[in-house]
Amino acid sequence: MRPTFSIIFFTVLSGAGFGILFLTGLSFLCADWVISLVVQTGHADGVPLMLARAQRGCAVALAIGAMLGAAGLACSAGHLGKPLRAWRAFSQWRSSWLSREGIVSLLTFVPAVTLFGWMLAGGDPRAPVASALGIVLACLCAATVFCTARIYSSLMPIRAWHNGYVVPGYLLLALYSGALWIPAIHSYPRVISMFAIPAFHVSIVNMLAIAPLCAGLKFAYWRWLDANRDAPGTGDATGLARLGTVRSFEAPHTEQNYLTHEMGFVLARKHASRLRAIALILILFAPLIAFLLSLPLDYLGAWIGLVAGMLGVFVERWLFFAEARHAVIAFYGR
Description:
By secondary structure, this protein is mainly α. It has one domain (5-332). 68% of the residues lie in helices and 0% in strands. It contains eleven helices and no strands.
């Protein structure tokens, strides 16, 4: 498949945005624990300041997550033939994962905007209503990314997508992207909040668990893809394989058409190997760089790790589309 940048930016940005919102929603559940930790260390007089910073930090995280998610969804409209008719996709929710993704993603903004307003109004992040909205937000974010993954994994003509690796890969990479953004947001001097402590732990979890899981899953996926690279031939596509070797003696048209342009993209195997190695290195070691450079809560180190990690996700997503092969190309003898 031809890797169109509008779709790549859609999956990368929306995955990062909903990953941020997912982790921010869960962070409201640990607000009581953080405050208790502060009180136990003998700094109870600093609780009001900590709450004020928490409100600021959570508001910024919610705003960035929502903007990235909205930007990703807006990029997806750029791949449509008639973007002004994108609203019609919402009517096919009974059969279309694209329609379900659009509906669930819009519902996700309801608790996100509500929590954002709650933080700006000076609401207590420890309040039960904040925890409840945080849980709803996290569930809707996970559902949105799941629907995005099912858009591709449900396509049977594309063997590279119709397998058991795609959905876990999308979910893990969204979590990984969000785990890169959260420490960077909460470690910035003007936004540093009581959630900087959990955000610091997110860096450790991302480095020791999420990043290795992402890299391991992608490595297994690429090995499976190499082992199943043989696509149906012209004989299989036409149903004439039982008669012998089937080949086309004349091209069906004199110039490139939509199918050959979009479905006939070919990536050299040597280039794919190099890009795979680059993606794995960036995904695996970006959290480590962010962690080591952010030990004193140095926001610059966290942002360097964020940029490197997101670049790795971008390369992986480009490969995800470039290495896919649609079965319709078999009719053209490729």
